[in-house]
Write a structure and sequence with these properties.
The structure holds 2 protein chains of 2 kinds. Chain A has 3 helices and no strands. Chain A is an all-alpha fold. The longest helix of chain A is centred in the middle third of the chain and has 31 residues, at 62-92. Classes of the chains: A mainly alpha, B mainly alpha.
């Protein structure tokens, strides 16, 4: 086996590991369900890349076969997962993963991103008032219900 | 169809079938008609018992006994029906030696059977280093003793069941009541027909169970539940002794069967009370072991028959329905102890010491219970103490040890079943009409309201008091005669003389308390509790007919049996009864007391036959002198009761003051403080131990168990916050786990 072969393998493996690592970090850190799904796909691709590289290195088609199989599985998975994501989205109107916490123990408090301050009670606006001036005019009692001058 | 074996099977089978039918269909289908199967079965069982009695009395074997007097070869009439083998355990070798078949230990060869039966073989006590085969069969026996018990039990239970139709009418547990009654009659008939000790013990417990169920029949009532529990626990003490006695019989005799059995290879293995042993009294274990067996059996009998140290359960048992008190706690079950003593008579015959104890217990119980009955105010409790007292009388008769004593005891058992059943049913009738009021201080002058009950109760009281033509007179007289005859010679004559006077005194007391109750309840000014005025209930014919029938039986049966002497002649043919007493004149029982160290192996002659100086009066001639004394005693008792409760008030005050002065009144009203003494001696220590054990259980043991449960819970509480429901956190945990795993694998040099 030539040295170039080993270096080639190393290079592919490093790229596969980087893909896997990126996918993993994405999977752990992102909250958008589709993004999380994409991150998982990236991890899969990292693995299939390293499988192909090993197959090339050993001059064996088994690795490529496995990679083809993984593509097929990933396609099926994508179909299922996207349908699932769609359903979840329709339920909550959001793709946020953290809206789904039903697996937790009952005694553990729900994770809340940040506390919103409670809405302050609205006070009625204080409009300026005119000070009353002079005496109030006297109105004859018979004119209380009916005022001919106005 | 009606051969003796089929009858013997039919008699217990009918009530059992009725109980099963009632249990299955009572709650839904039969309901208010639940009595139909039980009463039908009991009636058929009674007819079957009567036929069985007749068959035994007229069977050819039996007649040949009478005709030819072939006592040497055949010992009493008995027929065994073996249904199936219940348990069989082959004998074990101990110390490497196998007991030889046909040798001393396990039995006798068929060929030597005749020789053995004529009394020449060695006693078949088991050899110390091999235990014989343990074999328990479901064996029923038919013999005169059993037949008499069967007829008594089925007759009284039939009448009580009919009475219960009226008494229990409308009770929500109607079907339950009749199921229990059927079960009880099944157990009781099996008890008296069992032919081995294991079966006897099993049904001994079964009747105890039925008694418990029926005492606590109204289980919502706390007193009834407590009374049932008390009866069960007190009986446990006696049953423990009985069980020990059976164990001792097994180790001593190597068998538990009453009868001789023939195994397949023609080997006869003698039973405890079989013909082979009865042929010669030396074949029974005497000495210390024999006495121990007898005393343990006596303890069992004391528990069941409510004798002195263990009598405390019976008065409380009156919490049950009155028909139950009549049937179980007066007429039948409580006489099981007397029956057992009669059955095991031959064992007692070789242990005079045990016999003295039986007589002493019986006499003392008769006296003490009669004294307690003086001051009770609950009509049923008066009758309960009277039952204890009369059972004491029967024990006294069994303790006499002669055939006439045993026969007299059985005679009293039969007559007592009739008249005490009658009295209880009468009390139940009063209770039914008076809306459950049974306190005699609140009743009075009921003779006009309830004439039938009044007359039948009077007949019962007269019989209990022992007034001349009624049943109680003849049987009590027979017991007194047996005592008198035993006191006229032989060992411990003075002891029996004392018991004779004690029995006479008790007879007077019996008459007093019986008529105290009668005078207060039925004579004098009419006094009816207000509850009863609201719903005046007439005695239903279901209740009146059994009362009248029992009254007729009470009047008739004693005289008939006594004048014809039929019971006596009949019972003497029961295995183990003949050869004792007058039939054995000239046949002196040699009794070996080999366990007695002081006297060595001296054979002590003890004669249970009367001394030649006082020839026995034949059963047909009345024991005039004794009859006179007992009549004087009962009339004196009745007169005293009349004076105190119907006479001028001054007399009552003077007599009451006199009793007060001796302290008898307080002692009697306090029931001799038995309950209080047991409370201090038994209940308190047990309660102390029980609460200590309960504390230990709750705090220490439960604490340990709880700790096992708490530890995982605590660990779980530590880890629970990680279960936050956020998927990325789970993924992170997974990745960290994989990394840790990889790290360890790499670190370990893979």
């Amino acid at each position: 086996m030539a040295d170039g072969e080993l270096e080639l393998l190393n290079g592919y493996l490093v790229v596969g590991a980087i893909l896997f690592g990126l996918g993993m970090v994405g999977f752990l850190s992102r909250r958008n369900m589709i993004t999380v799904f994409l991150a998982a796909e990236i991890m899969l691709q990292g693995i299939s890349l390293s499988l192909t590289a090993w197959g090339r290195y050993h001059n064996d088609f088994g690795g490529q076969m496995l990679a083809l199989l993984m593509i097929a599985v990933a396609a099926c998975e994508a179909a299922v997962a996207l349908a699932l994501v769609l359903m979840l989205y329709q339920r909550k109107g959001s793709l946020d993963l953290f809206l789904w916490q039903d697996l937790r123990e009952e005694s553990v408090p729900r994770h809340i991103d940040r506390e919103l301050p409670e809405a302050l009670p609205e006070e009625p606006p204080a409009w300026p008032r005119l000070t009353p001036a002079g005496l109030s005019p006297e109105i004859p009692p018979e004119q209380t219900g009916y005022r001919p001058h106005v | 169809m009606f051969s003796i074996p089929s009858l013997a099977i039919l008699i217990p089978a009918l009530p059992l079938a009725a109980a099963l039918v009632t249990a299955a269909f009572g709650p839904r289908v039969l309901r208010g008609r639940s009595h139909v199967p039980v009463i039908t079965a009991l009636a058929l069982a009674f007819v079957a018992s009567a036929i069985l009695l007749g068959r035994i009395a007229t069977s050819p074997d039996f007649r040949s006994l009478q005709d030819f007097g072939s006592l040497e070869t055949r010992h009493g009439y008995q027929r065994i029906v073996t249904l199936w083998t219940w348990a069989a355990v082959p004998g074990m070798e101990i110390g490497g030696r196998r007991s030889e078949v046909g040798g001393e230990g396990s039995g006798l060869r068929g060929q030597v059977c005749d020789g053995a039966f004529s009394g020449r073989a060695c006693p078949p006590l088991p050899t110390p280093n091999a235990s014989p085969d343990f074999r328990v069969t479901i064996a029923l026996r038919a013999d005169p003793l059993t037949a008499v018990m069967l007829v008594t039990v089925t007759f009284v239970s039939l009448l009580v069941a009919v009475y219960s139709v009226g008494y229990m009418h409308g009770d929500p547990g109607y079907w339950r009541f009749f199921t229990y009654i059927g079960l009880f009659v099944f157990s009781m008939t099996m008890l008296v027909s069992a032919s081995n000790f294991v079966l006897l013990y099993a049904f001994w417990e079964a009747v105890g169970l039925c008694s418990y169920l029926l005492i606590g029949f109204w289980y919502q009532k706390p007193e009834a539940a407590a009374a049932g529990k008390k009866a069960f626990l007190v009986n446990r003490v006696g049953d423990f002794g009985f069980a020990l006695g059976i164990f001792l019989i097994w180790t001593t005799y190597g068998t538990l069967d009453f009868h001789d059995t023939m195994t397949g290879s023609g080997v006869v293995s003698p039973g405890v009370l079989g013909e082979w042993r009865l042929a010669e009294p030396g074949r029974f274990a005497g000495g210390t072991v024999g006495t121990a067996i007898c005393l343990l059996l006596l303890l069992g009998a004391c528990g069941k028959s409510a004798q002195l140290p263990l009598h405390v359960w019976l008065p409380d048992a009156m919490e049950g329905p009155t028909p139950v008190s009549a049937l179980i706690h007066a007429a039948t079950m409580v006489t099981a102890g007397v029956y057992m003593l009669a059955r095991c008579g031959p064992l007692f015959a070789v242990s005079p010491d045990a016999q003295y104890v039986v007589a002493a217990v019986g006499g003392l119980t008769a006296l003490v219970a009669a004294v307690i009955a003086f001051t009770q105010n609950d009509l049923k409790r008066i009758l309960a103490y009277s039952t204890i007292s009369q059972l004491g009388y029967m024990f006294l008769a069994m303790g006499v040890g002669t055939a006439s004593g045993t026969v007299a005891g059985m005679f009293h058992l039969v007559t007592h079943a009739f008249f005490k059943g009658l009295l209880f049913l009468g009390a139940g009738s009063v209770m039914h009409a008076m809306a459950g009021v049974i306190d005699i201080r609140r009743l009075g002058g009921l003779r006009r309201r309830m004439p039938v009950t009044c007359v039948t109760f009077l007949i019962g009281s007269l019989a209990l008091a022992g007034v001349v033509p009624l049943a109680g007179f003849w049987s009590k007289d027979a017991i007194l005669a047996a005592l008198h005859e035993r006191a006229s010679g032989g060992q411990a004559a003075a002891f029996y003389q004392g018991l004779y006077w004690l029995a006479l005194a008790t007879a007077a007391m019996t008459a007093f308390y019986a008529f105290r109750a009668f005078f207060i309840v039925f004579l004098g000014p009419e006094k009816v509790p207000p509850e009863a005025e609201e719903h005046p209930e007439k005695t239903s014919p279901w209740m009146a007919v059994p009362l009248v029938l029992l009254a007729v039986a009470t009047i008739d049966v004693g005289m008939r049996l006594e004048r014809t002497g039929s019971l006596e002649r009949f019972l003497e043919r029961a295995p183990g009864e003949e050869g004792r007493g007058e039939k054995g004149e000239g046949r002196v029982w040699q009794m070996r007391r080999d366990g007695d160290a002081e006297r060595g192996a001296v054979a002590i002659q003890a004669s249970f036959s009367p001394s030649p100086l006082s020839p026995l009066p034949s059963p047909h001639s009345p024991h005039l002198q004794i009859a006179l004394w007992s009549t004087i005693a009962s009339v004196a008792g009745i007169a005293l009761a009349w004076l105190m409760y119907l006479g001028p008030p001054g007399a009552k005050r003077r007599l009451g003051g006199w009793m007060e002065a001796v302290g008898l009144y307080r002692l009697s009203a306090g029931k001799f403080y038995f309950d209080q003494v047991y409370e201090v001696l038994v209940v308190w220590p047990l309660q102390g131990v029980a609460s200590a054990a309960a504390w230990l259980d709750r705090v220490v043991i439960d604490g340990l168990v709880d700790l096992v449960g708490t530890a995982p819970r605590a660990v779980g509480a530590l880890l629970r916050p990680t279960q936050g429901g956020l998927i990325p956190i789970y993924a992170l945990a997974m990745i960290v786990g994989v990394l840790v795993l990889l790290g360890t694998l790499l670190a370990s040099g893979l």
